[in-house]
Design a protein that fits this description.
mainly beta, 1 helix, 131 residues, 4-stranded antiparallel β-sheet, globular, 7-stranded mixed β-sheet, single chain
Length: 131
């Protein structure tokens, strides 16, 4: 049983900063890749940041330059730091992990990641940005 638990969401004003965390338990990942997704009301879930099994990162254009994704060496904890938050960043943020990643995604990034391709999901953390 693998559990992913997100934390760190909340309500901030425009221009604020949040650090989201995702802790995985009960796992023994093989070649994991991790992605942060978000879903706003009435919209599809979209990938915003990824980190592959080699530590290579990618970001959606909407958050590029003001976000950073990282992982611990044991790949049990992932973090998404978001600066200069805007009202359009308001969404529920989810972390997700795919194992045996290189076999499934020759190139794992926000352009290739898919909701259906991920193996494990957290339940999400709400981020609300007020103007």
């Amino acid at each position: 049983q693998v559990d992913l638990v997100e934390s760190g969401g909340g309500s901030v004003q425009t221009g604020g900063t949040l650090r989201l965390s995702c802790v995985g338990t009960g796992h023994s990942y093989t070649d994991p890749c991790m992605a942060w997704f978000r879903q706003a009301p009435g919209k599809e879930r979209e990938g915003v940041a990824t980190i592959d099994s080699d530590g290579k990162r990618s970001y959606a254009d909407s958050v590029k330059g003001r976000s950073g994704v990282s992982q611990t060496n044991d790949k049990s904890t992932y973090t998404l730091l978001m600066n200069n938050l805007q009202p359009e960043d308001t969404a529920t943020y989810y972390c997700a992990v795919v194992v045996f990643c290189p076999r499934k995604f020759p190139s794992f990034n926000v352009g290739s990641v898919t909701v259906s391709g991920m193996n494990y999901w957290g339940k999400g953390t709400q981020v609300t940005v007020t103007s």
